[in-house]
Known about the structure:
alpha/beta
Amino acid sequence: MTGKNAAIEIQGVSFRYDERQILEDVNLTIDPYDSVCIVGPNGGGKTTLIKLIIGLLTPNTGSITIFGKRPEDAHRLIGYVPQFAQYDRQFPISVQEVVCMGRLGNSFTGRYSREDKQKTLDALGEVGLAGLQDRSFSALSGGQRQRVLIARALASGGKILILDEPTANIDRESETQFFDLLRELNKRMTILMVTHEIGFASSFFSRIACVNREVIIHPTSELTGRLIRDMYGGDLQMIRHDHRCSDEGHKHV
């Protein structure tokens, strides 16, 4: 699938900071309702690739389209959950106020409409947090805060959900619930996620893309230890997680 029919189309993209080449001749097509896991070594260009897709950076060469639109014209098509959500624990902001941020730009008055507020409640219900809209954001657990940030992304009404290291600071039980949620969301939207948890790729994502200056993409059914070493360019330890188990579900491969 190409052009306007593709959720994300990347053609011949290269990017550098000053004289340092970060990404080189990247070609990648992600279809609607696809689920793609982005992995790779630190400094390999994963976060840079995400910033290019959402329009925070502009490629030096090549092109990126989101359902046929340039990234800067496609903000409403993308819900983004960043790696680190900075917030002041002393700042009295409610759960609903955080989710309402996903509706910014939908009103010319700068105020949230009744529809905006209803959309936030719908999004909270979708992530399993119905009834918590008045709770202080800082009072939530790590897993609940992550769900609020996903609800904020959903409130925008986008067709693509992009997450950067979303499971970094949540416990195992919350992690299991998180992937159950992603499975449901993937039925109606494209999901692209950056992670170091390669073991999850084979159980949830349809494809895995390794970013290490270039991008190599494979179906997760082809995922092997040797393939991962080749993609990373060296030896590494991989831990496979099986959410049906507890500690017994972690295997070194």
